[in-house]
Specification:
This protein is an alpha+beta fold. It is about 25% helix and about 30% strand.
């Protein structure tokens, strides 16, 4: 509010000197009532647009010079302390000037751009795409990063195209810049330059992603063993038949915990308005007699009738109470209490979603309770016996084990087809294909085709978007029939590592949430079966959890805490490098079916490319048993050349698309088996080198290179390196190895260990020998 003119001249409207201006402050004034506020306005006081009731009247704020403060106090106004004064403004100006100087310095020097990945690839019909990831040291939203690429070898920078990059943030933290989707390109670039509005610039070569050439199938190799979406009953019948047909190479492993079953208690609901509505639930499952129960709400013919409940076998009749005029008076709560008392052996009754139930109930014709399940009779309503198909010539635990499991989420119809197709290929190609024979002879393979049989039956026949199992952990306020599609546990949030109960993000404790973690860790038989399998067969070293959709290839860690994005411990650099190295082969095998490329930006640890998933199974197996596990999300986005856009395929694409997804990701599962076999046969120790990366006055930087994924242990204090020595770390997320710095001439001692456990130069770190590597790093003058 602007200062007003002074009608009576008691206080000057304008401050009369620069000295007064310098003492101006924002002051609190308390007046008894609105009349006091009006008087301040009349005096021309510069009132802020602020007013609130306080003890003693109304507090307002005014911009006052020292003289105005004295004058108002002399007139009896309660002028209190200052909210802010010129000293505060001076501090703010100083802070602003400092910030501007810092920004100007950064603009002159430029931010540091760290390239993470720059790759081109082809997908499906041969269309080429470009994917670039860069991290800036100035992640402010005002800092814009632009990528420019050439049009091939010998062409000038920017001749291929230019695009603005997007900031990728997660849990409120900056991750890196990237393209939201890979960019379609016409020619293959050899290098890309990224510049920022903060002054940074970096140029890097563009590499080919998924470099293995597309292979023609062996003339003796057979595939394509699925021709429709299958329910879990069919899926398990297929693996049972395979075990029976190929007893020399396969057997069934029965898992100890039966599921709750594809079954529900039968229910019926009565009433329309919430206060007069109630519902009943059979004590027996619908398939075990609950569907035979009926309830009738009858209005007696006489006046002043009492509320009564009578039973005739499975038929329950409620005679509602009436008043002297013959009008029904029974409330929902009264009927509920009567039913629970008199018919409790057949059913339980509840008011609607916790309502007090004080509304009067209306009569209703005989209503038969129903479990609302629509699967054919071929689908058993009994608890389900989950089974794994164990494939291998030698099944005594002496071979490295691989655990392939599908359909933790019910609505992901393609995934069990993937597991079935893989099993069929392994057994039907064993006699005629040498590569398949090597896999079956050298590995111990466990295929669990549907982790969530109950939920999957429900998804196929009742509610296609069912994600969870069918177990209702909700109480009466959330278990009425209209909520029947909202019950169940998200099995991939029910595990014991990094769970919501440990404070991690990405799961819910609400029983109707699609990411409900269950009432406790490992509360569900389905998740306990997974854990049992990995404990029962400790030779399992690798695992693949197949989901849909989106076309992702991920690995642990899979969860973090917020705020702060506190991750589960990342894998060490050697293991992380192995994950990346294996992805090249595994994703190339996916691509070999029809050309689908999984994007580089959808490859990596789960939180780096997707989100936090508290209590997931891959983390369970990795952190508790050291099982190297991946997550497939089948169903990569499909490029539409007409619209030049990627289109998502969904959980249940037309079968023609679902079939292709099952085929290509069965290829990927075979690729995982090939990686596992290479691990099993690896007897060659790694080789490493120490590389000087920079010299400054008084300091030298160095790192290590290595010929295969391996972990490097080193010392800088002259001691003998062991498995307890420091490990070489990653420089950062999705970056290469860190650079170490020494400020004096130092003898570096180190050795490397690959994933298979081979130690460089066959050194014995637990012994007393000196077979480790060593090199002196000198520190002298400048570069």
């Amino acid at each position: 509010m602007l200062a007003q003119s002074t009608p009576n001249g008691d206080v000057a409207a304008e401050r009369r000197s620069s000295n007064e201006q310098n003492g101006v402050a924002l002051m609190r004034i308390v007046v008894p009532d609105q009349a006091g506020v009006d008087r301040l306005n009349d005096l021309g006081i510069d009132l802020a647009e602020y007013s609130k009731p306080v003890d003693g009247g109304i507090e307002v704020h005014a911009v006052l010079s020292p003289e105005e403060t004295r004058d108002l106090r002399g007139k009896g106004f309660d002028v209190r302390d200052a909210i802010s004064d010129q000293a505060d403004v001076a501090k703010l100006r100083q802070e602003r000037a400092k910030t501007l100087r810092t920004l100007a310095d950064e603009a002159r020097s430029g931010d540091t751009l760290t390239p993470l990945r720059a790759e081109w690839f082809t997908s499906l019909d041969g269309q080429r795409f470009l994917s670039v990831e860069v991290k800036t040291s100035d992640p402010a939203a005002t800092n814009i990063l632009t990528a420019s690429w050439n049009g091939g070898a010998g062409t000038p920078p920017g001749s291929g195209g230019t695009a603005t990059m997007s900031r990728f943030t997660d849990a409120g933290q900056y991750m890196y810049h990237r393209f939201n989707t890979p960019l379609a390109i016409d020619v293959t670039p050899t290098e890309v330059t990224v510049t920022s509005t903060s002054g940074g610039s970096v140029t890097v070569p563009v590499k080919k992603w998924l470099g293995e050439p597309r292979k023609a199938p062996s003339p003796h190799y057979v595939s394509d063993f699925v021709d429709h979406y299958m329910d879990p009953t069919e899926v398990y019948q297929r693996i049972d038949a395979l075990a029976k047909e190929f007893p020399g190479q396969a057997a069934i492993v029965k898992l100890p915990y039966k599921t709750n079953g594809y079954r529900r208690h039968a229910q019926a609901q009565f009433g329309s308005a919430a206060a007069s509505t109630f519902y009943v639930t059979s004590q027996a499952y619908g398939s075990e007699g609950g569907n035979d129960v009926t309830v009738t709400l009858a209005k007696p013919d006489q006046a002043s009738a009492p509320l009564t409940v009578s039973l005739d076998q499975d038929n329950v009749t409620v005679d509602l109470a009436t008043n002297a005029e013959g009008v029904v008076t029974s409330t929902a709560k009264q009927v509920v209490d009567a039913l629970n008392t008199e018919a409790g052996k057949l059913l339980s009754a509840s008011t609607y979603r916790g309502n007090a139930g004080d509304g009067v109930v209306a009569e209703a014709a005989t209503t038969r309770l129903t479990d609302n399940l629509h699967a054919p009779a071929s689908v058993s309503r009994d608890p389900f016996q989950m089974r794994a198909l164990r494939i291998g010539k030698t099944r005594d635990g002496s071979k490295p084990g691989v655990f392939l499991y599908c359909q933790e989420h019910a609505r992901e119809w393609v995934t069990p087809l993937t597991c079935v197709e893989t099993a069929e290929r392994l057994l039907r190609n064993y006699r005629h294909d040498p590569n398949t024979r090597k896999l079956v002879d050298d590995l111990d393979i466990f295929v669990l085709p549907s982790v969530n049989p109950d939920g999957a039956h429900y998804s196929l026949y009742d509610f296609n978007m069912q994600r969870r199992n069918m177990t209702d952990h909700c109480g009466p306020t959330e278990s009425d029939p209209a909520y029947r599609n909202s019950w169940g546990v998200d099995l991939n949030r029910n595990f014991s590592v990094g769970s919501v109960y440990d404070g991690y993000s990405g799961a819910s404790t609400s029983c109707r949430s699609d990411t409900y973690a269950g009432p406790a860790e490992l509360s569900e038989p389905e998740s306990r079966n997974e854990v049992w399998l990995t404990h029962q067969f400790p030779n399992i070293k690798f695992a693949m959890n197949t989901h849909s959709y989106g076309g992702y290839f991920m690995w642990p860690p899979g969860a973090y805490k917020v705020p702060g994005r506190e991750l589960l411990p990342r894998a060490d650099l050697g293991t992380e490098t192995f994950f990346w190295s294996a992805s090249d082969h595994i994703l190339s095998t996916v691509q070999n079916w029809r050309g689908t490329a999984i994007w580089p930006g959808r490859t990596g640890p789960v939180p780096d490319v997707l989100y936090s998933a508290a209590g997931n199974s891959a983390d369970e197996h990795w952190y508790n048993r050291g099982i190297i596990g991946w997550d497939f999300e089948v169903g990569a986005d499909v490029w539409n050349p007409a619209t030049k856009q990627f289109n998502a395929v969904g959980f249940q694409p037309p079968f023609a698309e679902g079939h292709e997804e099952a085929m290509e990701f069965a290829n990927g599962q075979i690729g995982i088996l090939e990686v596992a076999r290479a691990y099993a046969s690896d007897k060659v120790p790694p080789k490493s080198k120490l590389v000087i990366t920079g010299r400054d006055t008084g300091a030298t930087k160095f790192t290590f290179t290595i010929d295969e994924p391996a972990t490097i242990y080193y010392t800088l204090d002259g001691s003998r390196p062991t498995l307890n020595s420091p490990k070489l770390k990653a420089a950062g997320m999705r970056e290469g190895p860190e650079q170490l710095t020494v400020d004096k001439t130092t003898e570096v001692k180190w050795f490397s260990v690959d994933i298979a456990g081979n130690v460089e130069k066959n050194y014995k770190p637990a012994g007393k020998g000196d077979g480790y590597r060593r090199q002196t790093v000198t520190v002298g003058g400048g570069r």
